[in-house]
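step 4 of 6: structure.
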Amino acid sequence: MSKAIPYKIYLEEHEMPTCWYNVRADMKNKPAPLLHPGTLQPMTAEDLAPVFCEELIRQELDNDTRDYPIPQEILDFYKMYRPSPLVRAYCLEKKLGTPAHIYYKFEGNNTSGSHKLNSAIAQAYYAKKQGLKGVTTETGAGQWGTALSMACSYFDLDCKVYMVKVSYEQKPFRREVMRTYGASVTPSPSNTTNVGRKILEEFPGTTGSLGCAISEAVEVATSTEGYRYVLGSVLNQVLLHQSVIGVETKIAMDKYGIKPDIIIGCAGGGSNLGGLISPFMGEKLRGEADYQIIAVEPASCPSLTRGKFVYDFCDTGKVCPMAKMYTLGSGFIPAPNHAGGLRYHGMSSILSQLYHDGYMEARSVEQTRVFQAAEDFARVEGILPAPESAHAIRVAIDEAMKCKETGEEKTILFGLTGTGYFDMVAYERFHDGQMTDYIPTDEDLQRGFDGIPPVNL
Amino acid sequence: MSKAIPYKIYLEEHEMPTCWYNVRADMKNKPAPLLHPGTLQPMTAEDLAPVFCEELIRQELDNDTRDYPIPQEILDFYKMYRPSPLVRAYCLEKKLGTPAHIYYKFEGNNTSGSHKLNSAIAQAYYAKKQGLKGVTTETGAGQWGTALSMACSYFDLDCKVYMVKVSYEQKPFRREVMRTYGASVTPSPSNTTNVGRKILEEFPGTTGSLGCAISEAVEVATSTEGYRYVLGSVLNQVLLHQSVIGVETKIAMDKYGIKPDIIIGCAGGGSNLGGLISPFMGEKLRGEADYQIIAVEPASCPSLTRGKFVYDFCDTGKVCPMAKMYTLGSGFIPAPNHAGGLRYHGMSSILSQLYHDGYMEARSVEQTRVFQAAEDFARVEGILPAPESAHAIRVAIDEAMKCKETGEEKTILFGLTGTGYFDMVAYERFHDGQMTDYIPTDEDLQRGFDGIPPVNL
């Protein structure tokens, strides 16, 4: 029995999820454990304790608990910006002339502008609960840093953000949003850490890198009383928190008797895709339903479609644990494309395992086609998408156009992770015809693995 | 009978307003008519036809029809971003420790980032219905231009925006959003009009003004086949369309048995305040209810609190009709404060009449106190407000703190018109302690009336 479907489905407060869903509980092949970079042995809770909060370590290592009750304090915060709307893209369907039904879950309706807030508030909560004074992190494009600064402000927790220097200077607006929320934002490399000072000495003119910013943030967390380090993607705990996206989506779809045939999400480190697909993947793993699940990545940084499934460092600085994942090699330097959130050499271990086991597929797309999709979408659906999100729009439109050819009335669901307000420089390049596509050669890809020790487990 | 009140009240589709409410129908003293600047006679529909669309002229001159059914095409577009949430500011109340109940109607949850879209889509619709090819307008800070470009894109209408040159250069992101929606954006003054060429000849280095941009937009509209000029505030028609804000708010409050004691809105030209208060003011005018209604304006541009209630030009270029309103004089040049949307010398004739007749009050506030309120609000409620909206937040907090002193449990409603994503330069100045307050002297105010002919009607 299906009801008339509104443009936007908002759950009422009493319908909202009260648990996160841990997809690992339903995986036969569990994601491989993190390894200590020195001993190459699985990281224990004790190994991780100087870096991460206790409860987050428990979540990170827990492959068994299926449902995690969301603490009331986090539910209260979620109420301020959730539920996010599940939108029926009636206008896009009409413009494409497709028989497909297209839905998107829009996570940009909060000041941080993206889904990152779902995990930021959880990580800030557990840090506060542990009695910590503050947390440190790095940020590149700035979505994660913004979300974390909002979360820390809410729990009155100190927040130290190391922002890649080139972004700090080129994206002053992001920086000011973080300052509005009381975060201290330091351009990286900086003089505030040993690793920063060392890099500045060797390369005085450097504009920084994510790898360096991670190293600085970790150094401060581990050397300052009452601080820990937090991360916005890749980790199992992050996918757990982000499952709220998928659980909400599934409740809303079930309410109206809608069943997606295809589920699409952009994938950088995997936080959004992993969250969106979680409960659907759970049904698929348990053999209760089937869905076509597609991860979309930039052609310039194709970890799933052209990477290797091996143990690698999570950071380019090689200070963090090693993870088994689809990776281009921690030495891979992606071309400066405009989807900063997708410029990551690896991929969540959970998603890597699921992809390896055939539960999902992957596509890579070039950025000019991505921006064309972004503009087409904005003009009919109103929302100005982030470049990252537009990767999913591109493939959703491609799939809808296939339906037009075949006459199939498929139901397509995609994740619209955020807004593009702080990405207008990229749009400007697109409008002015100055945007280029870059596809790495096989030789480029091989160089990413230089200096990485082979690990076979 | 009141139900438990959620953080955010969203109306369901079947509860949404289907009519705009025309407050003029309930006013005993109607707003004074627009006058022809040459003859000083009331403007007729024929006089206005070369400039405005036919249906919009009918709405502009209609002081009698109370309810205007909203055309289905506009209702369909409203469904894409409306209802806007009515939010109970639980976190702000807690932080202030006030017994007051605070609610805000948030109009920033759409890509244009403000309430301006409510009227933009209506004006674009009537232009399309009349068979026009396109519309012209001016924009300063860019909220109106962005909203209009989105609306024109939806109806496949050409959109020519004259953007004050200094904003065009300093706010390239706003410009790129408009281009994403297919608008042509021209820095004003430009070589595309007679008036622009004349000004450039006289003042080659000028960075432009709103008055000049209006003149260029009107010249293009009246001299190009199939084009008309549209405006985002001040006019009666705009307040009619914006009544959707207030009508939605009232339906949501009635649903939960909430009755506001105080209603607060920022006021530049009056589009937001007029829309928010409309149905409440209607009850007040008909003697069915009483509300304390407060217009908030910048101390640097205090048209209600320090202006005169006289006939004046609507534009600094003196090419548009004259309106009877509270005004600082069309020659008044406001200090460069950071709430571009409130830097207008006059005020809607409807609101001016209501203020003159004692149905509402007005307060002026200084911008550093406004930004302090903006930051306090952002940190607990999550939303990063536009500087304009923060004027209303300032007075809402002030009123809530009075309740704390007296112990009164008043219900306060304010309009949160938009987001501040494109105003981070202002926030940066505030963070860096570089923001100054400016209050014009009586002599400054007198200069605004130089050269304006006295009109007594």
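step 5 of 6: annotate
 - The two ends of chain B are 49 Å apart (CA to CA).
 - The mean pLDDT of chain B is 93.
step 6 of 6: archive
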